Amino acid sequence: MNGGKVALVAGARGIVGGNLVRKLLENGWSVIGIARSADATAAPGYRHLSVDLLDPKACRDAAGECAATTHMFYAARASDADAGREADTNAAMLRHVMEGLLAQASGLLHVTLVHGTKWYGSHLGPFRTPAREDDPRHAGRNFYYDQQDYIDAVQRGKAWTWSTVRPHIVCGLSLFYPFNCVSTLAAYGSLCRALGRPLGFPGTPAAFNAVSQATDADLLADAMVWTAEEPRCANQAYNIINGDYFRWRNLWPALAGFFGVEPGPADSPPLATAMQGNEEIWAAMVRRHGLRDLPLSALANWQFGDFLFKAEWDVLSSIVKCRQHGFQRALDTEQSFLANLSRMREQRLIP
């Protein structure tokens, strides 16, 4: 046990939460994971609670089993096309968890929230770059704002502290998770090879040439542990990215090479159009290559991929603040993508 530290990870089955759980266990923490779905993980030091965070009673009932929590990592989210409804839902989920936790966990030291560059309006159009943590909020509703305002208000005058991390395009392994760029690319590239097609860029030439950034899930987990343990992180927000920037046009040949196909044109049809109706082809690939028996939907979310590949503006975050406060880890983004794709191949998720 790491100095008696007990982590509560909300959203333990997502791409962020799942990788964080693994990191914490490797570092000797005791971990309680909560998510709506069950989890068959059997690892020393890990306990899973199936809880619907939209149910306040369920959260209160579960809080009794979380009384030893010293650090809470909140990586849960509920998506909704309506920004106002999404903000209300996600604020309620966090509130339900915190109310139960604050009533039971007298030894709570720190709470870390996972947000992202949507804080700056990156999903809406061009914004000031490189984005800094103290930039003004964009107009309109954003559930990040509701969550931070809540956690800031409920923490005032208390001994425990909070922090938030703001990654972009989190790259890591997860299944049945709707916001995984790597697994969507893995399914797309594998299908292109099976269909004898080049790996076309399913966006526009402007998006192909725009500058962007990514955050490896393992690096993000390290950053979250850092925020939990570093006193300078008390009540602070941090941009967390790999440390470099990229253009899809430069990354695309390496991705095509991984799948053994030629890179295609930069104005190919959207994924939701080009990849529609390939479930039976995927099932045949699973049988032919002896892959894990999972449906295509376990890996691919074509709509999410199309959302990522339509950004025709630069997305850059400043990481000066996290560097000045002590977080120094950096990764090459191309290597991050290829390493995670290789892990999927090793785990027989793709051929």
Mind explaining what this structure looks like?
The chain has 351 residues and is of the alpha/beta class. The chain is built from 13 helices and eleven strands. It has helices at 15-26, 56-63, 83-104, 143-155, 181-195, 205-209, 217-229, 248-259, 271-274, 279-289, 302-308, 320-324, 333-346; strands spanning 6-10, 30-35, 46-50, 71-74, 110-114, 161-166, 170-171, 211-212, 215-216, 236-239, 246-247. Strands 3-2-1-4-5-6-10 form a seven-stranded parallel beta sheet, sandwiched between helices. α2 (56-63) runs parallel beside α3 (83-104) and α8 runs parallel beside α13. The chain is globular.
Number of helices in the DSSP assignment: 13
The major pleated sheet works out as:
7 strands, parallel
Mean pLDDT: 95
Q: What is the general shape?
A: globular
